[in-house]
Amino acid sequence: MSETQAAPGTVYLVGAGPGNPELLTVRARRLLDSADVVMHDSLVHDDLLGSVPESTRLVDVGKRPENGERTTQEEIHDLLVEAANEPASVVRLKCGDPTVFARGGEEAEALAEAGVDCEIVPGVTSAIAAPGVAGIPVTHREHASALTVVTGHEDPTKPESALDWEALAETVAAGGTLSILMGVGKLPENMAALRAAGLDPETPVAMIERATYEDETVVTGTVGTIVDRAERADISPPAVTLVGDVVEVREAIDACVQSLGRQLVTTGQYSQIEGD
Q: Taxonomically, which superkingdom (predicted)?
């Protein structure tokens, strides 16, 4: 069997990238073309799912909090082990990178415990790709020498939060960049936590919704204004929130990056809502 083909009895934890199918890695593409089973998240692009061979069994194991439908993580573990033991070659397809807030580590542990071979295939994480295609570099010699990626889904007011908002605010104030994933629903609380931790309300913020899709939307503002602007723009998941001075770089390269964005998306549509 070719080393680029998916091997029976093996589970491949594959990153699908930030959205657009053209941002898939070569390794991921080859594995999708030869897999027996593909178990995918709900946010994986329809065009990508439609590109796999007709003989491939597609299994939707996504979670849809808006309507209560979900496949539990334990069920996903069981499905992966069961399929691998058929034996089948299984691609577990996740948005972004499988190890960045995608539970790839948990699934790898479950597979190891069950004695199932697995391989982790990195993907382009939206934490970096979303701001990048919107013209915002997450690091820049004149603006940011550090990048912190956090989940925005956690409640910042809970007593035992795993996030140190004071430390995050200090990092941004010192010139770092904060990339927040899955933070649309908690945006008001997250921005309030940063302000309470001492971050200047004038610190630049951008939100990139559905990065690399045909309906990609970019909203810019500040820690003090982004909540109102995101609400007016009706920003909804999936979206990445970027906090830090690097957001201002977008103004200098705006025209160039918009052209690149139009090449990346399917229909050439690109919308943006800038700060006042």
A: Archaea
Clarify whether 47 is annotated catalytic.
Answer: no
Alpha-carbon gap, residue 125 to 79, rounded angstroms: 25
Phi, psi of 103 (to 5 degrees): 65, 20
Mean pLDDT, residues 128-142 taken together: 93
Q: Where are the alpha helices (DSSP H) in 175-224?
A: 187-196
- The CB density around residue 76, as the number of other CB atoms within 10 Å, is 21
Mean pLDDT of 255-261: 59
Catalytic residue among 60, 63, 200, 254: 63
Q: State the burial class of residue 23 (Cβ atoms within 10 Å of its Cβ: 0-12, 13-18, 19+).
A: buried
Q: Catalytic annotation on 63? A: yes
Which of 39, 182, 191, 207 does the annotation list as catalytic?
182
For 135, which DSSP code?
T
State the distance between the two ends of the chain, measured CA to CA, in whole angstroms: 58
List, for residues 20-74, the tens digit of each pLDDT value.
Answer: 999 999 999 999 999 999 999 999 999 999 999 999 999 999 876 555 567 899 9
Which sign, positive or negative, has the C-alpha torsion 220, 225, 231, 233?
A: negative
Domains of the chain, each with CATH number or no CATH = 10-124 (3.40.1010.10), 127-273 (3.30.950.10)
β-pairing, 57-60 vs 10-15, is: unpaired
Q: How far apart are CA 53 and CA 33, in angstroms?
A: 6
Q: Does pTM surpass 0.70?
A: yes
| 1 has a pLDDT exceeding 90 | no
In the predicted structure, residue 172 carries a pLDDT above the cut 80: yes
CA distances from 107 to 37, 73, 87 (A): 16, 8, 18
Active site residue 41: yes
Is the Cβ–Cβ distance between 206 and 219 less than 8 Å? yes
